[in-house]
Amino acid sequence: MTQEAFFRVTDFVTGKVSLPATLGNMLTAIDALAAMGIGSIHSVTGVGFPMDLDVGLESLFARGLRNPVAYRLFFQTMDVAKVKKRKLPRIGGCFATALDGCFGSVDAAMNEPYASGAGLPPDASRGVLYYDEERVKAFCVEANRAGLQIEMHAIGDAAFDQAVSSICAALDDFPRGDHRHTIIHACLPTRRGLEACAARGIAIALQPAFLDWEQEPLSYLRSIMGERAMELSPLRTMRDMGIIMAGGSDAPCTVPDPILGIHAACNHYVPGESLGIQEALDLYTRNAAFIGFDDRERGSLEAGKLADMVILDRNPLSIKAPELRTLKAEGLILAGKPYRGGQGAADLIIRGLFNLNRKI
Predict the structure, then answer these.
(1) Domains of the chain by range and CATH?
(2) Count of alpha carbons within 13 angstroms of residue 325, beta-carbon side
(3) Could you read off the pLDDT of 297-344 as tens digits, one per residue?
């Protein structure tokens, strides 16, 4: 109920924000992200505006940016026809494609009950699955047959298993070699689910900063799930199994600063699940480009690719893991040119209207 109420309130509030104000805020945000060295954005849209006007506005925004930011839209809907109508190559995210809640509201869907300290009534002791198995499978089958990339939110192990089994069912129905379907979060994955991800090429979009997040500290997580808290985000295990993992922030839940995510990935509270520094850098560069189908142009500095890079104040490979959070981004270069901030709304709209073929 808590998470469902949150979604309803969010839909209501966002629907009351004027489109001009939204556009101005987005321009401010894009400059703020660039200051953190971010040149690639996976944005979830479809959050309550009448007639999905936010989807159209964000499409215009993405096409109108004067800097060559890799801005990729994810329409949060299970209505495949809506996505095909807008000629987007992917579907999903959170909200309508969230399979469960989260640990903060104690409604992430679990295979085993939460600990008694969570204070849940017996009928809600395992959290909440928002959809039954058949509904999720039907969605995945339809989206996969339509050639779309699928992304779904799954935090608890029951939701993770549901996401994995539904994507696998879709691939059994209509095999695709380079689908790049992705599960978002996968905070408490099961071993059998991870094995299926490795075998079927299912990627995981995770947020390492959750490992050092003041809203859900380890003491709180242990109080609601006991020792299962020590099994959260097993980065090393997933890496060694060959699963493609990409790093993100789930902003505004955590600060959208890749440096903080890289630091968290290298300093897991279970030391054996930490990544090496180069592996953590890959989460936010080549792997992020891969799950966005941008790996032919971005994600690494190679001949034939765009010269996208961030300038840091120090070499991250020359410092110790605990010091990574002290790194600072000093500049962003996209397609070989320094990022230029301060774009105005009028310029953006004109560019967006005349740049309809730009990849989003």
Answers:
(1) 1-71 (no CATH), 72-338 (3.20.20.140)
(2) 12
(3) 999 999 999 999 999 999 999 999 999 999 999 999 999 999 999 999
